[in-house]
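Milestone M4 deliverable, item 7.
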Amino acid sequence: MVAYGAEQRVRVPALRAGWLTQTFVHWSFPPETVQALLPEELVVDEYEGAAWVGLTPFVMADVRPPGVPAAVPGLPTFAETNLRTYVRRRDGRDGLWFLSLEVACPLLLAARAIGAPYHPGTLTVTASGDTVSYAGSRGAGGPSYRLVVRPGEPVEPAERDVWLTSRWRAYTRRLGRLWETPVEHEPWPLDTAAVDVLEETLTTAAGLPAPLGEPLVHFSEGVRHVRLGPSRPCAPEPGLS
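Output delivered:
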């Protein structure tokens, strides 16, 4: 079982931000399908015998280095969308593996240096009445998505909800090494959500087939106190090159 609150303190963050207006769209897949997309150091994390892939569009707000308060005018705020799955190192440490990262801010492309699969694109997040709309495209003819959700009532997170949303490190791979980036923030406040529109080609572009069933969807107003730690290479595990 993963922790509802952050597993570790990020005492010296490399970056601080808020993750706002976030929707979680999750599909289940056969574990072997997702495992084929992972590096050898990682194994797919399963919930009740299935692997899960999440499409998570949101607003990255007030991005700043440590020591700069969120109230400073003009801090970068932009849309981002992640396609992610859930993994464990062979020593048992769980985390996220990103199949793709779409971003509207060129500054984040620097994270490619540690293998984060960022792609520049045109992304929008808009709220109108009782709906929230997300859209994005990776250039002309590239993968794209359009999602319109209708947030509902707050939910008390069940075990599966926590398992899908509360992860405290991300793994990337670069130059033959696995890298780990820790994260700390307050627990996600989750609402139910109904989908009005869902059109996307990101999963197909990542090499995934059709999912096993209909998506599970949550909405969150977001978390405002995100602390991303410095990325560091993981120690090699015995028996792996």
